[in-house]
Specification:
The structure is a single chain. The protein has 126 residues and is mainly alpha-helical. It has one domain. It is built from 5 helices and no strands. It is elongated, with a radius of gyration of 16 Å. The relative contact order is 0.15.
Length: 126
């Protein structure tokens, strides 16, 4: 995956995060309160935003340092983390399917791998 594609995915992810956040705050609030999952949905939106910004930073880094090998691994980790962590929390909040909470930590592991890969890249590529 090249820098341009990473930046495109960051833009798309940001737009989705804004849309879901607004939709949750306005149209879904009653359902989320009824399900007792307003905080869970907000956590999903927050982590979605945080890691979209991380993906944006990775895209910028890939533009500035195209010679850095492995930068796409960090991008994929952030993307998978958003899909698994935030995605499972979104679905859990709306559906009440509680077993989805069991896969949420896998998204957290993807986030951690993404952040650790940035540390590794910065050490490896002085």
């Amino acid at each position: 995956m090249n820098a341009k594609r990473i930046l495109q995915l960051a833009g798309l992810s940001g737009a989705i995060a804004v849309g879901l956040g607004a939709f949750g705050a306005h149209s879904l609030e009653a359902l989320l309160i009824q399900n007792g999952r307003l905080d869970t949905f907000q956590t999903a939106v927050n982590y979605h935003f945080y890691h979209t910004l991380a993906l944006l930073g990775i895209g910028i880094l890939a533009t500035v340092k195209p010679e850095w090998k492995g930068i796409t691994f960090a991008a994929w980790c952030m993307i998978l983390g958003i899909l698994i962590f935030s995605g499972s929390l979104y679905v859990l909040s709306l559906s009440g399917i509680t077993w989805l909470g069991a896969i949420t930590p896998l998204g957290g592991v993807a986030f951690i791998l993404g952040w650790c890969s940035l540390v590794y890249l910065s050490i490896k590529n002085n």
